[in-house]
Design a protein that fits this description.
This protein has 166 residues and is mostly helical. It is built from 8 helices and 4 strands; from the N terminus they run αααααββββααα. The strands form 2 sheets. The chain has a two-stranded antiparallel sheet with strand order 1-2. A two-stranded antiparallel ribbon has the order 3-4. The longest helix is centred in the first third of the chain and has 24 residues, at 5-28. The two termini are 25 Å apart.
Length: 166
């Protein structure tokens, strides 16, 4: 299903606080079978959300680049890691992470929302939005942040709320 970013942002403004309270409650007292439920909901979410119609993550966020990512992507461009960093990244002092210098991501093709380095993209991108990590409770803080950026995360929390409060 195509994502309407304008509508998504309105929903977030209206429901973000309520969703964050719900996620905090789950974090403090995880229900039995949470990981299995997240796995089931993940499959449902991807039938309803088309990332290529959105790409909001690539337009508004930056992945963190690990040393493994840097080696792989620099090799893809046939440049040194130092050259790759100088051209496209900056070092975020507070967290000690390498991040994109600009947004939207320099590797995002804005005409079709496709990643120009998809096959070698950072692990952070490949795992995003981290919906079905094995211990979901360990990623609640990530989901709290991502509901404002990612329609799939928003939909997952919406479905999780329905399932656990029904």
């Amino acid at each position: 299903m195509l994502v309407n970013l304008r509508s998504f942002k309105q929903k977030v403004r209206h429901n973000q606080k309520k969703m964050n309270r719900f996620l905090k409650k789950i974090e403090k007292n995880p229900p039995k079978g949470l990981d299995e439920l997240a796995e089931k909901i993940d499959a449902e979410v991807w039938k309803e959300v088309d990332c290529l119609s959105c790409a909001n993550c690539c337009k508004t966020m930056s992945p963190t680049f690990t040393m493994k990512d840097l080696k792989r992507i620099a090799a893809h461009f046939n440049v040194s890691i130092k050259e790759f960093k100088e051209k496209w990244l900056y070092f975020e002092e507070e967290d000690g992470d390498w991040m994109n210098k600009k947004q939207p991501c320099q590797f995002l093709n804005l005409s079709n929302n496709m990643c120009s380095i998809y096959e070698v993209r950072p692990d952070d991108c490949a795992g995003f939005p981290h919906l079905k990590k094995k211990k979901m409770v360990d990623y609640i803080h990530v989901h709290q942040q991502n509901i404002t950026y990612c329609p799939a995360t928003y939909k997952m929390v919406e479905k999780l709320t329905e399932a656990l409060t029904a």
